[in-house]
Request: fold
Amino acid sequence: MSELWLVRVSPQQQQVIDDFDRLNKTIETRGQGLWDQDYKNEIKEGDYLAFIHGDKNKEQMYIYKVDKICTTDERLEQWASSRPYTRGNGINAVNHRHAIVLVKNHSIETYDWRDFRRSTGLGKACKSWMPRGTSKVLNKEKLPFILPSNR
Reply:
């Protein structure tokens, strides 16, 4: 069964915003783009990765399907590897993370973040709650949509 993973595109990290914009442009022109896997390399082919992006209280989820898991050698050159990817993001290097190929060829492409939180109960009463790092949605039975599962 497919999993849904969440990652926040931090509005305070211009490097991450630029990478996300580059990913979107690459997917629009080539049909697929590269991102890096979660820190434990648990994301699998057929899973979905939802990027939470937008101004505060107007965030949208941009949902992509993981089409392929690549090697660490296929990471993009501009990605950091021997240190944390962005400032304030831990102390460990990220060169162990595999690259993943993301595609948009599925029925759910965007979803309102606030509606998603209401449906799933994520963050409970904390109005500004966001996932830290790349997080798997555990309560999939509360998803407001059905993930196509065709691994």
Summary: Helices lie at 14-30, 113-120.
